[in-house]
Amino acid sequence: MKPAPTLSPAFLQPAGQSLPTPLLALRSERGTGLADMPLPTRKTENWKYSSKYLKLSDEMASPLASDGKPSASLAAPGYKVVFLNGVMMPEASDYPDLDGIRIRSFSDLSDDEATELAARLDSTLDTDAVQMARLNSARFEDGLLIQLKPDARLDQPLFIVHEATANASGSAFPRIFVDAGRHSQITLVEEYMSTGSAPVMVNTVTEFDLADGASVTNVRLNTEGESVQHIGATGVRQQRSSRFESHTVGFGGPLRRHDLQVRLEGEGAECKLNGVVVTQDKQHYDNHTCIEHVAAHCNSEENYRNIAADTSHAVFNGRIHIHQDAQKSNADMNNKNLLLSNGAEIDTKPELEIYADDVKCAHGATIGQLDKTSLFYLVSRGIGRREANVLLTMAFINELVEEIPVDAVKETVQLQLNQFFDHTFQEA
C-alpha cells in the first residue's frame, strides 16, 4: 500500500525571529507537533473533493519577501492595516487612535502581552478538523492583535489588506486575533489580493473572541490571482447575547479553501453567515462551515450560494451541531448552486447533528442551471441572450451581494462579477 503523503520538512524550517519570545516558543512547539503530519487525501473526509488540488512543493516552503511596497487596494473610507506577505507594513497603514481600541502587530507586544496572547491562539478553532491552520501556527512571522475594551465602538470599518507578491515561489502566513470586549462593536474587512504569477501559498488564520453583548461584522473578500493557493481558517467564540455576522465573497483559483467555525457558548448569542463563490475555467473553491450551538436560546442563520462555469469546481460543506444543553436553539442553513456549463461541478453537503429535543432546525440545498423558460421569456421581449444570462445569474446572487454592509466591497464585487460575465457569456 502506498504510504500517505506527509508535510515536507522544508515547511518546518525556522521562519523570521522578530516575534516576542513567548510567541516564538509557541511557534516552535506547534512546528514540532507537525513533524510527519499527513497531508489531506481523498480519504480525508473534509478534504475529499479538494485534496487533489493541494500542491505543496519544497520551493513553496520559503517565506515570501516582505521588503517591497504594497500596491493599491480597496480605495475605501475607513481605517486600514496593510500586510505584505504576512508581515505588517506600518508605513502603509492608517489605523485608529481611539480610546478603548488598541491595534498592534504581534512583533510590538511585550513578553507579558505575548504570553497572554499565546495562551489564546487557536482557542477558537478545532485544529484537528482544520489541519492546515496548524501550519499557520508553526510559521506565522507576524500578526495583528485587535483589542476592544468594554463599550468601545469603531466608528468606521477597519480594512485589513493582505497582499501576496508572487514574483517567486514561496508562502505567507497572515494571522489576526480580535478580542472584542463586552458590548463592543467593530466591522472588519479582510481583503486578499496578489501580484505576480509564480506559484505561491497563502495560509491564513483569523480568530474572533466575543464577550457578552459584543457585535462583530466580518467581510472577507478574495480576489487573488491564478497562481495563488489560498487556505484560510476563521474561528469564532461567542458569549451571552453577542452577535457575529460574516460575509464571505470568493473568486476561484487553483485552490481556494476557507474553514469557518463558530461556537455559540453563551445564551442568546446569534450568528449570520453569508457566502458567495464564483468559479470559472479550471478553478476550485471549497467552503467548509461549522456552527456549534453549545448554549440554549441561540440563533444561527446561514446562506451560501455558488456559481460554477466552464470546467470549474465548487464545494460547500455546512455543519450545524446542536449540543444537549442547547435547548430552544433556532438554526437555518441554505445552500443554492448554479451550474453554467455541463463541464462544471458543484458538491454540496449540508449536515445537522442534533442532541437537544426542543429546537427548530432546517436545512436545504439545490443545484440547477439557468431556467430556460425564464431565459426564453427575456429574449422574446428583445433582451439579448448574453444580457438575459447576466440578468438571471445576477439575480441568483444579488440578494447576498446587496447585504454586504460595506459599499466599497460591494462595488469591487460587482466589478469582479462583470469580468466573470464577460468571460462566461458571449453574445449569440
From TrEMBL:
Q: Where is the SUF system FeS cluster assembly SufBD core domain?
A: 168-396
Report the Pfam families cross-referenced here.
SUFBD_core
Q: Which domain of life is it from?
A: Bacteria
Q: Which InterPro entries match?
A: Fe-S_cluster_assembly_SufBD, SUF_FeS_clus_asmbl_SufBD_core, SUF_FeS_clus_asmbl_SufBD_sf, SUF_FeS_clus_asmbl_SufD
Cite the NCBIfam families for this sequence: sufD (TIGR01981)
Protein name, per record? Fe-S cluster assembly protein SufD
